[in-house]
Amino acid sequence: MPPASTHPTVRGEAPVEDDDHGGVCTPADRIHRRLDLLDAGLSRHDIDRAIGLGSLVRLRRGVYADAGTCEPRRRAAQHGGTLACVSAATHLGLWVLSPDDPLHVALRPHGHGHPHDDCTCIEHGDHDENDRFRPPPLHGILRQIFLCRGAEEFFVALESALHARKIGRAGLDWLTKNTSAVAREAIALAGRDAESGLESLVRWRLRHLGLTVRTQVRIDTVGRVDLVIGDRLIVEVDGVENHGSAEHRHRDLLRDARAAARGCITLRFDDALVAHDWETVERAIHAHVQRQLHLR
């Protein structure tokens, strides 16, 4: 499959502060080439014995994984590389809009993949690590998301990385130098406050309306709300984990009533509306703004 993205020109030294390769499996769980194991002093007998004991797993000819290595990284190594783009972001625990995407695999420039059983991998030919199986640094993963999935998904993943404090000033500066104007708009807008990808998505999609949108705002007697537009228009976005629970429903109604008592208006949307029927969400918000109901 042709690469989904490449890095024709990369400017500036790569930052080290966001070099976080943890996630589903630990950094100690690695992918190994047979030659590297032999160079490290293991004999062929040692390798075969480790496989027999289950501490090493053969992925394909000459490539092995430590037993604790997660399935996505094993599949990426079978394909000839390491996790990339939204697959790498998911591995790091970041919010992504398309968690069920086919596996994204980072290959070296001019490298080639090794299709395997049921292979639907999406290739990214931009991996410049010395170890082909070492995951890319976070700033590189975010750039892959921008090039492959666009500014919206980039913004969601970036705010997630900021919220988790996985990326700092050096990583943001690198992204600013190595992306386009729309990515730089996303970088300028991004903050650390959002606590879900839905909040980030709503804020990104409302940016063109010229509104003041704050995230995770604390209101007396109500608690923290997802977003506040202007002075008093509350927008709550409920993830799938809040669906169908009578306890959650009662809590939400109580919060909305307390907000109303303080002169606030609450609009509440679920994840399906935000992700798949944005036009309805935007019309509802715009109607309130047109009537200046977001202002006191």
Automatic annotation (TrEMBL):
InterPro entries: DUF559, Restrct_endonuc-II-like. Residues 197-289 form the DUF559 domain. Keywords: Endonuclease, Hydrolase, Nuclease. Transmembrane segments: none annotated. Residues 1-22 are annotated as: Disordered. One of its GO terms (molecular function) is endonuclease activity. It holds the Pfam family DUF559. This is Very-short-patch-repair endonuclease. It comes from Microbacterium testaceum (strain StLB037).
